Here is the input.
Amino acid sequence: MASHSSSSNGASVIGRATVIRGTIRGDGDLQVEGRVEGVLDVSGELTLEDSARVRIEDGALSAGRVAIRGAVSGNVRGTSSIVLEQGARVVGDLSAPTIGIRPGGLLRGHVATGDSPVSQALTRGRVERTPARTGRTAAVAAPAPTPAPARGRSARAEVPAARASSSGSAYASPAITQRTAAEEPEAAPAPAPTRGRGSRETAREAAPPPVMPALRKGARGQMKRKNGK
Amino acid sequence: MATVIGQDITIEGEITADEAVVVAGTVRGKLSVDGPVTIEAGAVVEADVGASTLSVGGTLTGNVTASERVDLLAGGRLVGDVKAARLTIADGAVFKGNVDMEG
Amino acid sequence: MARDYSATYATKAGSRSASSNSDSNVLGRGIRVRGRLNGASDLRIDGEVEGDVSVGGSLELGEGATINGNVAAKSVVIDGALTGDVQAEGTVTIRANARVSGNMNGAEISLEEGAAFTGRIEADFELPDGLAAGVGPRGVGAEGRRNARGR
Here is the structure.
């Protein structure tokens, strides 16, 4: 297996009887069957086989595409995607534009899909905070950034649905979904827009909204409702 | 099975293995292998190396201990002390260091 | 412009609209419920729910459907938009079209690629030898997180 041709192809393997403590960086793909402790940062596809044992000690494991069937302690970032396959056991946060968790893939941690810089910043913030706190404190503190964007998003999420049904087409298209997700963090500081649903249909009819740049996103929605009355 | 460190991979730290290790990329630190180690042409290793057998076609800077043998291939370059029962240095290889073959 | 719902149920806590004996309850596409939704059997939601949902059987949130509230069920399949936490005895499946913001608790949580998801997943398992040290405490405190999100 360890032929010269395989290595010059750029196919890298950390075998199952190998332990690496330190930093692994590089371009191209890497397959891990053994144990890695430290930093793991490759630009290509990283495959952690079922025998892999990886402990990330600083920051996040990072790769273009990450496929996990083994055990990971630490945060995982995919610039393209992360997939937890059957057998994966991960304790840490996941962040990637696309994330899949197959049946039998186990996770304890936060998940953030999408590739907006803000959501990645949130994930990084968690990374830095977590070791310094006790588990309970970190756990309670962890969702603090979540509710605000969630509210903003819940209101926004209705816009594509309303559009789709009024035009007779299928419900929210993937493109709209993506955009909604990407805008989510922007809505964070807005006042909670989920109140006052009584006149919401009015807001819906105005669905492709006139842009009022001076207002923040949630505020725009509230204005519309008031004006519609 | 084996570990293969491709030419686009750099490892800084300590590698411990009970299987063959092939280095085509860059390794800095320490390489402790219970098995054969191959340092391919183009590879750069700055590490002390322990292995059963060691084959050097690339550049190795560090001390070597091999339980069986060390082969320095043509084009290979080794700067460091070698402790091994057998040592071959091919025509075209570069070697600087001491050799201890008494084990 | 056509309304996308034909009725609005402003139910208060204790609504039993999903607790009929039929095991195929559907809250249809045009229906909007505001308040707590409790039921003993399976429920499929194609409309909109503003409030917590608790069913004894499986809960399916159809594509285009919305829940703003926490969800408790035996198992949950999400194809629509959910803002809230999920507590399931069994599996939670987030499908590719789903948009979910909330924390997931269940025996098995699966996430299809393409879904938009922000939140925590708390699976109960042990990391193998040597990896577990130093990360164990992060698994506790799920209740605290849920309370922090309460509305």
User: Anything to note?
Assistant: The helical segments of chain A are 4-8, 117-129, 135-141, 147-166, 174-183, 200-205, 217-228. The interface with chain B takes residues 1-2, 4, 6-28, 30, 33-34, 38, 42 of chain A (CB under 8 Å). Chain A is about 30% helix and 35% strand.
